[in-house]
Design brief:
The protein is 38% helix and 20% strand. With 200 residues, it is α+β, with helices and mostly antiparallel strands.
Length: 200
């Protein structure tokens, strides 16, 4: 379920300290009910395969990302020199000492994101190319039923007019195709791995 931006901005996340020049593009409630200490399992699931289940990532997700990769190659959006540490510095450079010295979090095997930091109730990862510098923030929040669940926010810093146009162009595809399919599969994977979480 898509949430208002305030669902992210109203919480005392540490990510706010590093992203004053980013804006919150999307906030989603994740179908991942659990206990107060389950963020670590959600982060592992995302890093190992995002919303993938035994059938792999959703078809619409794979198709749209294949199109994006082809466009990126053709237009040079992902060329060397357009990403983290080249076109833009990593957010790790902005971290206060306690976060820099703490857990970084896992590297994703399925998404082009690099971990920035991980805490008990939040994880941040970033990516950059010629169009945008983006942050995926996964928080662990109290749920209405007394338990907890995941919450995902996407923060972006477009690269000039080209980046702003790119973000506007892909918005309908993200909202109507990518995120709903990804969240459905993420929820199925979360439910099927419930036994593994309780046995950890």
């Amino acid at each position: 379920m898509r949430l208002p931006v305030s669902a992210h901005t109203s919480r005392p996340w540490r990510i706010h300290e590093m992203t004053g020049d980013f804006h919150v593009e999307d906030v989603w409630a994740l179908p991942t009910p659990g206990g107060p200490d389950d963020l670590v399992h959600l982060v592992r699931q995302i890093a190992n395969g995002a919303g993938a289940d035994s059938a792999g990532p959703p078809l619409v997700y794979r198709a749209l990302f294949a199109i994006r990769r082809k466009l990126g190659r053709r237009l040079g959006w992902d060329d060397p020199g357009t990403g983290l540490g080249t076109r833009v510095p990593t957010l790790r450079d902005r971290l206060p000492a306690d976060l820099r010295e703490g857990a970084r979090g896992p590297e994703s095997r399925s998404l082009p994101f690099t971990s920035v930091y991980q805490l008990h109730d939040e994880w941040a990862a970033e990516t950059a190319n010629r169009t945008v510098h983006a942050v995926m923030h996964i928080g662990w929040v109290p749920a209405e039923d007394g338990g907890h669940r995941g919450q995902m926010a996407v923060l972006v810093k477009p690269n000039g007019r080209r980046g702003a146009l790119y973000m506007a162009a892909i918005k309908p595809f993200r909202h109507l195709g990518v995120y709903p399919a990804l969240l459905r599969t993420m929820g199925r994977t979360w439910r099927t791995t419930a036994g593994e979480r309780t046995s950890d």
